[in-house]
Amino acid sequence: MEKKNPKEAASVATPRPRGADATAAILRAALDLGEEVGFDALTIEGIADRTGVAKTTIYRRWPNVSAIVMDAFLTEVTKAAPIQEKATARESFAVSMKLLARAYRGQQGRIMRPLLGRAQTDERLLEAVKTRWVEPRRQIAREIVRRGIANGELRPGLDPDVVLDALYGPIYHRLLVPYVNSEVSDAYIEAVIETVFGGLELKPR
């Protein structure tokens, strides 16, 4: 019987992932390796070594490491923190912001910090953050504000973008600016909601 050398045997025993399996493996490796070595030290070569996917295959799908990390982030955070549409604007944002805060207290927060930092000097990444993460969520959130105005929950004449900045700005401030007691806790989200909606809601006359 013909004997196979060890490399051939290993190749047979552990075939390279393909298609959707390869994509999932690459995205998971980007997150895991980023945590292990730091996202600034993350490389295509490291991801290829971890997954067994050829570098040429990875480069055909993504132009650089930042693009892989962006896709990995979106895959995880859109499952963990979708915008919730409830009966009222207050309830919708309270639930949605708590989900986002919980995600940012974990791995998604550790990914988002370097992503936002790198996006300041990487135009393609900045555009990806804007068009694939920020704007799709803001479009849904703007409609929640507009419905709140239309149904009499919120004051007329409010600018939806200013409302969203007032609600979500504190989360990103705490995410990016370190200071004592800066955790984005559920209690903090409740305090933000109470403070902001105190000025937004239409008071009965």
UniProtKB/TrEMBL annotation:
One GO MF term: transcription cis-regulatory region binding
DNA-binding region: 43-62
Keyword terms of this UniProt record: DNA-binding, Transcription, Transcription regulation
UniProt domain HTH tetR-type: residue ranges: 20-80
InterPro entries given in the database record: Homeodomain-like_sf, HTH-type_TetR-like_transc_reg, HTH_TetR, Tet_transcr_reg_TetR-rel_C_sf, TetR_C
Superkingdom of the source species: Bacteria
Protein name: TetR/AcrR family transcriptional regulator
Lineage start: Bacteria, Pseudomonadati, Pseudomonadota, Alphaproteobacteria, Hyphomicrobiales
